[in-house]
Amino acid sequence: MNMMTISKSIGDVLYNKGIFGHVTVDLVSFPDPTSPQAHPLFWAVDLNCGLTDYSAACLFFDFLMDGKLDQFTGKYQIENSGSFQANDSVSSASKSKSCSYRRDTSEQRSFMYCRYLHHPGLAAIQYKSFFHMCRLESVSFDLERRQGATFMLQDCLQSGVIAMMTIAEDRKESLQMMIDAFRFLESQAGSLAKLRAGGGIDEARTDELDLADVVSSVRLLYKALVKKEEKDKLAARRR
Q1: Are 34 and 58 in contact (CB under 8 A)?
Q2: What are the domain boundaries of the chain?
Q3: pLDDT tens for residues 56-81?
Q4: In whole angstroms, how far apart are CA 91 and each of 31, 87, 88?
Q5: DSSP labels for 78-128?
Q6: Distance of alpha carbon 147 from the chain centroid
Q7: Are 162 and 113 in contact (CB under 8 A)?
Q8: Rounded distance between C-alpha atoms, residue 127 and residue 108, angstroms
Q9: How much is the pTM?
Q10: What is the pLDDT of residues 16-38, one digit of tens each?
Q11: Rounded to the nearest 5 degrees, what angle is found at the Cα of 127, between the Cα atoms of 124 and 128?
């Protein structure tokens, strides 16, 4: 079962019930316990009849990439054009000719989106200073290569909340970009460990997600992905 089949089956039911417009379905995926090598199973855990933050993030990603999504595989491709200049010398000493041509190449893009990054230290940073340091530290989005990190303002910076999207050719690279951006945030807004030690963060239980928890989860994802790649390489060598 692919994502297109799942989406169409849910969409048909919603249409029959008179529901139109943007709909977001949250799914959890896990291996089939009866057949680990088969296609993973899916469970729907939430349904939102409206344009959510995650839907808007996908539209934002598509706007930046201007590419094409394969609805059956979930892979996103962009067309990158590279220009070349080739010079061919003619045997005659008085003549030479040059020809230029372009080659179109298709590249894959993957993105990671964190919609809620809360750091109290962000409240003390001015917009101009923050984005100036982004340029100096190369935490930015490359319009020509169409990859990099882009911050998204969910509220004013003084609220201490920001969102971020990293875009790269594969998932591993986008995760690494996210980790690098976390380091940048800590260098600008202050170490979370120091804020905790100094009582800068309220220890009372709240519904807010702490930046340290997000950083920890992303790093675990990155380590798991690296470990899986190493395992796959080892298995390939044994074959």
Answers
A1: no
A2: 1-51, 110-238
A3: 899 999 999 999 988 777 889 998 75
A4: 65, 13, 10
A5: EEEEEEEEEEEE-SSTT-EEEEEEEEEEEEEEEEEEEEEEE-GGGGG--HH
A6: 10
A7: no
A8: 33
A9: 0.74
A10: 999 988 888 888 888 888 887 88
A11: 115
